[in-house]
């Protein structure tokens, strides 16, 4: 059986009776058994997945109404709640937490008869970009298992790229969908802030993060977006997009469009292979009839600093709730006074989470807020202004998704600043709320490189069209696993 088909192909095959959901899901589970010991994309595999798929086959046979996913196997990042399933955020802190409700994206996918094959590995509480900060061990890049798959949604990208599912959902606070998508050669998309409900996503930095699909094709992303996007009464930051069909006209191209190439994102610190891939991508976009020119977004140079200041502050407050009294990790209070109890509880966090929480206590504190947090907010608003100016001139912006090629597991783990800088090209979209997508573009030295396209707020449909156009110029080798 061909597990390499896209989501849309899967739907067609099952709908037309050429493929049974149960057979496909059961082969998918076999595939996970065969390769995941090496790759570690999954923290848990759903033991009921095959049974759930067989129920969908039964519905099809008996002529009942079937949802548009037709039993499609999807993996879900382990910071998104599925009712009655463990949701650990790859942390020891939530080792025993069983979600009491479904995230909105999950209930929408359930309504459309998706099958969740498992919970995908990630950096603890989505803090990181290599998946090495998972408390349960790193995921590995299927293109070369000595290398990181990117992160923090590393398990999502690995599972899609290594055919352990058809599609996945990740979350993107500063690049966590796009970065692993680029490193594993999948599509990874962060929508306009508010387009997808965050209800049931465990917060890291809620003012800028979004859930986003990881898929094999741009059309598959549009397909999933049609299902999971839009207004949600549980999340009052959501946008009403009633009537929007992200698949319609997706093939209509980018002829006549103007594209700015962000100079700050392809300069010093960019690997030569990545720079040359970006130049090739620009030529391809021009070949499709777009006009490309150099563009400058000056505030980009401060965006990583502002991002880590803002996200640490939000993390400090979001993670304060993990006090060992509410979310499933139990040891008795006897023998402790308040502070020593909380200190002991917090030892369940890994070192990266602790680093962020300490930083998050400091930067917004009285006496320091003016120097750090408020300055970071100023950068955010100036950057947003600059971006909106840029979109008066351009339809899209383009840059490499990540300035460097995937690196070896362990290579940068002890150097937080070096790691933070890998986020240089992705955090801008989160700080400004704009939609961005990483499109698989080439393989260099056996490792994938993705190209990032960005559009103005609420131009998601147009952005997907540009991504589809770029994707149509590319033919990539198959993952060697
Ligand atoms: N690497 C960034 C961080 O650690 C982005 C993470 C994310 O998008 N969740 O904050």
Helix percent reads: 25-40%
Secondary-structure content class: alpha/beta
How big is the Rg? 21 Å
Strand content: 5-15%
N/C terminus separation: 16 Å
Q: Strand sequence of the main sheet, in spatial order?
A: 1-3-2-4-6-5-10-11-9-7-8
> Which small-molecule species are bound to the chains here?
glutamine
Count of separate DSSP helical elements: 15
In N-to-C order, the SSE pattern is: HHEHEHEHEHEEHEHEHHHHEHHEEH
The major beta sheet can be summarized as: 11 strands, mixed
Q: What's the count of strands? A: 11
CATH architecture annotation of the domain at 7-252: Alpha-Beta Complex
Which superfamily, in CATH terms, is the homologous superfamily of the domain at 7-252? Amidase signature (AS) domain
Low-confidence stretches: none
CATH topology of the domain at 7-252: Amidase signature (AS) enzymes
CATH level 1 class label of the domain at 7-252:
Alpha Beta
